[in-house]
Amino acid sequence: MAKPLIFAIPKGRILDDALPLLEQAGIVPEDAFFDKSNRSLKFATNLPHMSIIRVRAFDVATFVAHGAAQIGIVGSDVIEEFGYSELYAPVDLGIGRCRLSLAQPKDDAEQVGNISHLRVATKYPNLTSRYFESKGIQAECVKLNGAMELAPSLGLSRHIVDLVESGSTLKANALVETDRILDISGRLVVNRAAFKMRSAELTPLVQKFRELAGQV
């Protein structure tokens, strides 16, 4: 008997949009999943052959790429940052839309195009390095996992690269968006090996999510 499929979903901004899609696809987590006091990370679903794990967004990509989970939902920012060859991203779900942007203090007149080296605080060192390399700029990336907006005011870096939705957090921290690096949305991701080995289970799931995303 085949092991249960593991569906990885991210904590944070995409989760609220992902849950209705899961339900429409016929996947409903057990009640414990919705209990905010429950610290479990793995949950049963209404499908006896499928469990759900709820992990950090960056870890969704890692679990699926390495085959610990067979399918998942994650932002395209994470897919691009890691570049795992084992990840297949067949469906743009159109959820969790935002952008990855470059920002700096609003009273800083320095133009990035006029410098050859800079320090930038970001959660995305690979994407950030590639962006600046394309402009002929050497970037020293300072890896932070949050609170990027504090970096300029505390002298850690004059620039940040971070996710932007409304821009209100930037404004509240006296920062302005100076370039849009990447438009982001939630994607369905599948482990490539699992997609071949367990195609009877995974292909209908992928097709269902395509239908829900209006891509058929």
Structural class: alpha/beta
Give the strand order of the largest sheet, numbering strands 1, 2, ... along the chain.
2-3-1-4-11-5
Shape: elongated
Helix count from the secondary structure assignment? 8
Q: Could you report the average pLDDT, rounded to the nearest whole number?
A: 93
Secondary-structure element series: EHEEHEHEEEHEHEHEEHH
Largest sheet: 6 strands, mixed
Helix fraction?
25-40%
Uncertain parts = none
Describe this structure in words.
The structure is a single chain. The chain has 216 residues and is an alpha/beta fold. It has eight helices and eleven strands. The protein has helices spanning 15-24, 57-65, 76-82, 125-133, 150-153, 168-172, 192-197, 199-212, and strands at residues 5-10, 42-44, 50-55, 71-75, 87-92, 98-105, 117-122, 138-143, 159-164, 175-184, 186-191. A hairpin with a 5-residue loop joins strand 2 (42-44) and strand 3 (50-55). The longest helix has 14 residues, at 199-212. The chain starts with a strand and ends with a helix.
